[in-house]
Amino acid sequence: MSTTKIKAAQLWGKNKDDLKKQLVDLKQELAQLRTQKVAGGANSKLTKIHDLRKSIARVLTVINATQRSQLRLFYKNKKYLPLDLRPKKTRAMRRRLSKHEASIVSDKQKKRQMHFPQRKYAVKAAEA
Q1: Considering the entire predicted model, what is its pTM?
Q2: Angle at 23 between CA 17 and CA 29, to 5 degrees
C-alpha cells in the first residue's frame, strides 16, 4: 500500500499499461480504506482517502492528456478533426467566414471595380 501522494511529474514518463495498473492499485486501496472507515477506523483514514482520491484523479488526468495528444497527432493532417479536438471559441466565431472566404471577390464584383473604380479627387490645400 502506498500512503504517499503521487506527483504528476512522476506519471508523465510512464506508459499506458503502468498507469492503468497503478490506477487499479489505487482504487483497490481506496476501497479498503473506505471499508475500514465504515468499520470504525481513525480520523487519519479520512486524510488518506482524500490523498488517494486526488492521486487517482492525477493518474486519470495523465492518461486522458496523453490519449488526447496521441489523437491530435493521428488527426494532424486529416481533413476533419473530431469535435472535442477542435478549438472551442464561441458559436459565432466558429460560424464566421474564414479569412480566405472573406477575401474572395466574385466575377461580377471584379468587373464592377474595373469599370467603375474609386474616384480620386484633388483637394486644394487651405492657405494660412
Answers
A1: 0.70
A2: 140
